[in-house]
Design a protein that fits this description.
The protein contains 7 helices and 3 strands, in the order ααααααββαβ. The protein is mainly α. Helix 5 crosses helix 6 (86-94).
């Protein structure tokens, strides 16, 4: 929990729920193949950056909880260097200092798409920032 800056076990449980849902859908699709649903599930996992674009349903079953936690806004802000610690990343988000697509985001648990990862920055209106 410390590695990802989670405040409560509930945040971990929510990430586990997302992972459980993805895996359940993948298992159901393996049992009863449906090309359309399979394509949608793979596209969702690819857009979240959980598997590669050439991934298959079996790759979804190999996703770990750390993969989900790495896609949280808090982790992305820290990895991009917009905060020096994971806890500072959380504070910047909660205090509305982080913007994505010109919108202030205040949820550290937001799962960031790969296409939106480059659009995350510190709000230029915030005074006293050394960035």
């Amino acid at each position: 929990m410390r590695e990802f800056g989670l405040k409560r076990k509930k945040e971990l449980w929510k990430a586990e729920s997302v992972l459980r849902s993805l895996r359940r859908r993948a298992r159901n699709l393996q049992a009863r193949p449906d090309e359309k649903s399979e394509k949608e599930l793979i596209e969702k996992a690819v857009s979240l950056g959980l598997i590669k674009s050439s991934g298959k349903i079996e790759d979804i079953l190999g996703i770990a909880i750390s993969d989900i936690l790495n896609r949280r806004l808090q982790s992305v802000v820290y990895r991009k260097g917009l905060a020096s610690t994971i806890k500072e990343a959380r504070q910047r988000i909660v205090h509305k200092h982080i913007i994505m697509e010109n919108k202030k985001i205040r949820w550290p648990s937001l799962l960031v798409d790969v296409e939106n990862e480059d659009k995350i920055s510190i709000d230029p209106k915030i005074k006293g920032e050394g960035q």
